[in-house]
Amino acid sequence: MQLIAKDICKRFGATVALDHASVTLNSGEVHALVGENGAGKSTLLKVIAAVHKPDSGQIFLDNELFSPKDYLDSSEKGVTIVFQETTINPYLSIAENIYIDRLRNFNTKLKSINWPKLKKSAQELLDSMGTDIDVRSDIRSLDLGQWKMIEVARALAYNPRVLLLDESTAFLNNKEVKAFLGVVDTLRKKGLAIGFVSHHMNEVFEISDRITVMRDGKFVIELKTKEATAERLEAAMVGREIGSKLFPPRAAEETKRDTILKVKNLTVKDKVNNISFELKSGEILGIGGLKGAGGEAVLGALYGTEPITSGEIEYNGMTFNTATPNKSIQRQIAMVPGERTLEGLIPEFSIKDNLVMTALPKKGLLSDKKKEIEISNTYIQRIKIKTNDYNNPTSSLSGGNMQKVVLGKFLAANPKVLLLNNPTRGIDISARQEIYSLMREIANAGVSIIMLTEDLLELLGMSDRIIIMRKKEISKIYEKVAGLTEADLIGNII
């Protein structure tokens, strides 16, 4: 079985997303698509899966023209996709989310749903993937990685011949990634043709058979994985050698810093137990640990999305034990959330409207349209958001450029404290370099940053000090980072 996408072109307004892009997916192979954010990888998968209609070009499945009317029709015909952005409905059960489009298949003769059969089928799918998710759990109690595994199960429920995976590992922890890649390998051995998009080169080299590099919506090169190197791929992705200096230099360790924020005996029920730490002016304080260790709850308590059970926060000459996002913005505390489309953006709104959302300029009682345009242009240029029109919907951007919009939105609020939840998740190496440079630039300008990350290299490369969370408590605080290795951290994480 073979799927061929040939000379695919797609525009969103004036933005060229795909420019005669082509890819071939073969039965029993994992074909990775790599490239910078905005290179067209996700758009190409979405065109193949009939999420988007191509402006020109053709798709063939087993030598026959493949032209489904929409995404659901494509899935029914054997070509389905797992999206990069979250598509879970938190008000439905796990089983309902997996079979959301085909609940009628579980109807009884009386046209009611056969719940035991539905739950049994859903649990079997989850178990086959190696997850520990119990279908009876409240879906709102699960983390983003578990939500992604449910989305993968939804795709597999179609019993597809072609499976398209768009950054499907972005929100998974190491155990889940290992289980997920094991499922992908099993599906490859069963004869599925798999298209795989990831910014994690270790995953690409581990699971793929062939690799296609895309840049600016175009096909650049196709290689057998065994013939590829990370350096060759990175150079092809960006059109130049990236170099080994991913992280910008830190300020000198002897730099004197004033304490800007103190957390005292902070507890968030069932999530954080009695922790205390300080944040210095102009530093990047890294928080590491496994999912559920407490890091996200710490950021949420500081910003106001998690209720503080006990303890207090001293900040900028005042003490408080309650917060809301609105109060935090007024206090010049901003947070870039871990899930951009659910928490950070309104994707249907324009890039401009999202960028000015936290700092909407006023002219009397009305919004200052001229100032809005000025702000949006400033951050489009400063953060290098790939667009030629700030009026384009944010949903037309790649995942990485959406992340840049979220970052710009909160920088526009002129924060003194910036909370970052996995700021480069799902972002390519070139864009990571840009964001790391921006983080260090604003820290050097006096902004204090707390960065939660599950990427140990990022934690080591960007942090001035490091807090390790384990089992909802602080396991270790490293006052100096120079000379630390991943092995040093892991013993306090696990």
Features:
alpha/beta, 494 residues, single chain, six-stranded mixed beta sheet, 17 helices, 33% helix, Rossmann fold, globular
Q: For the report, how would you describe the main beta sheet?
A: 6 strands, mixed
Structural class: alpha/beta
Mean pLDDT metric = 89
CATH topology of the largest domain, by name, is Rossmann fold
Count of individual helical segments: 17
Count of β-strands: 22
User: Rough shape?
Assistant: globular
CATH architecture of the largest domain: 3-Layer(aba) Sandwich
The parts where pLDDT drops under 50 for at least 5 residues are: none
Summarize this structure briefly.
33% of the residues lie in helices and 26% in strands. By secondary structure, it is an alpha/beta fold.
How do the helices and strands line up, and which of them pair or pack?
Elements: E1 2-12, E2 15-26, E3 29-34, H1 41-48, E4 56-61, E5 64-65, H2 71-76, E6 79-82, H3 94-98, H4 115-128, H5 144-156, E7 162-166, H6 174-189, E8 193-197, H7 201-207, E9 210-215, E10 218-224, H8 230-238, E11 259-268, E12 272-280, E13 284-288, H9 295-303, E14 310-315, E15 318-320, H10 325-330, E16 333-336, H11 340-344, H12 351-355, E17 362-363, E18 366-367, H13 369-382, H14 399-411, E19 417-421, H15 429-444, E20 448-452, H16 456-462, E21 465-470, E22 473-478, H17 486-493
Parallel strand pairs: 3-8, 3-9, 6-7, 7-8, 13-20, 13-21, 16-19, 19-20
Antiparallel strand pairs: 1-2, 1-4, 4-5, 9-10, 11-12, 11-14, 14-15, 17-18, 21-22
